[in-house]
C-alpha cells in the first residue's frame, strides 16, 4: 500500500549524493560546514547528515537548541536580535555566539565573555535575485554596516559572519563578491580567527565548479589566517525531497485545472513569496494541466505542467524540490490536512516518520 497523500518524501540516496559534495568541499577547502536550520530542520534526517557536516547554525533560540540536542558538533548561535529573556539560554547552548549589531554586542557581550564572540558585518554587497532576500538592500538591518562602530569592538570579537549570497550558482560571481569584501574590510579580516561566509552558495547544483570554490575559499583562509565556515541550507537538501499529492478533482475554465490535496500557501509557501512555479518531472506530453491547491485562495497554483496521459482523479503527482524552506514553513491555513513526512531509505522502502492530524491543528491554536 502506498502511503496516503499528502506527504513530503525525503530521499536518502539523493541526500547522500549532496553530502558527498559537502565532504569534497570541506576536504578540499578546509572550510567547516554548518547546516542552516532555518532552511531545513527535519531532525529525523540528522543522523544521516551530521557525519558529513561540522555542526549547525541558527537564527533563533529554538533552532539553536534543536541543533544542540539533535545534531551535535559545533553549535553557532545567531539571531537578528536576542531578547533579555533568551540570552542566558542562548549562551548556555552555544559554542560561538554571533551578534547582529554592535548595540547587541554591547548589551549582551558580558554574558558571552567565556565564548568566542562574533559579529555579523554587512559589507554592503550581495548576490541575490530577490530584493526580499537581499541582505544589502537599502536600510538593511542584517549585520553591522557602520565601519567605525565595527572598528571600535575589534578587540572583543574573534570572528565575523558575512552572509551576502542567495542562490549563487557561479564561482566567478562568488569570487568577485569576495574580492570586493576583501578590498573593503580586508584589514579587519586579518585581525580575526574565523570568518563565516554564510549560506546561499549553490555548490550542489549539477555542473557547479566545486574545486574552483574550494580553491577560492582556501586562498581566502590563507590570506587572512582564518578558519572559514560556510552555512549551507538549501545546497544540502536541494533536489532531495518531493511533495506527494493526489488529484481530487478536475475542472475546466479555459484551462484544465487539476485540484490536489495540498495548498501552496500552507505547504510550499515560497512559491508564492518569490512568485515562482513549482516543478514536476519529466513535464512532457500532450496533456497540459494547471495544478492547483484545495485552499480557497484564488491564486493557490503550483504551476502548469505537461503529462503523457490525461490525469484522472486519484492520480499521484510528485512536486519536486520540496526540501528547503518548505517543511520549516508549513502552516495550517484553511485547515488543510498537514502533509506527513516520509523517508525513502536507500534500500527503497518508504517509511512514514511523522503524521499530523486534527489534534495537531487544534493544538496549534487556542
Ligand atoms: C538563510 C541563511 C543561511 C542559509 O542560506 P541558504 O541559501 O539556505 O544556503 C545561512 N546563513 C545565514 C545567516 C542565513 O540567513
From TrEMBL:
Entry EC no(s): 4.1.1.96
Family statement: Belongs to the Orn/Lys/Arg decarboxylase class-II family. NspC subfamily.
Cofactor(s), by name: pyridoxal 5'-phosphate
GO biological process: lysine biosynthetic process via diaminopimelate; nor-spermidine biosynthetic process; spermidine biosynthetic process
Record's function text: Catalyzes the decarboxylation of carboxynorspermidine and carboxyspermidine.
UniProt keywords, alphabetically: Cytoplasm, Decarboxylase, Lyase, Polyamine biosynthesis, Pyridoxal phosphate, Spermidine biosynthesis
Record: residues binding substrate: 270
Name of the top EC class for this enzyme: lyase
Organism of this sequence: Devosia sediminis
One GO CC term on file: cytoplasm
Recorded catalytic activity of this chain's protein: carboxyspermidine + H(+) = spermidine + CO2; carboxynorspermidine + H(+) = norspermidine + CO2
Complex and partners: Homodimer.
Record's subcellular location: Cytoplasm
Residue ranges occupied by any Orn/DAP/Arg decarboxylase 2 C-terminal domain in the UniProt entry: 239-323
Principal place of residence: cytoplasm
Protein name: Carboxynorspermidine/carboxyspermidine decarboxylase
GO molecular function: diaminopimelate decarboxylase activity
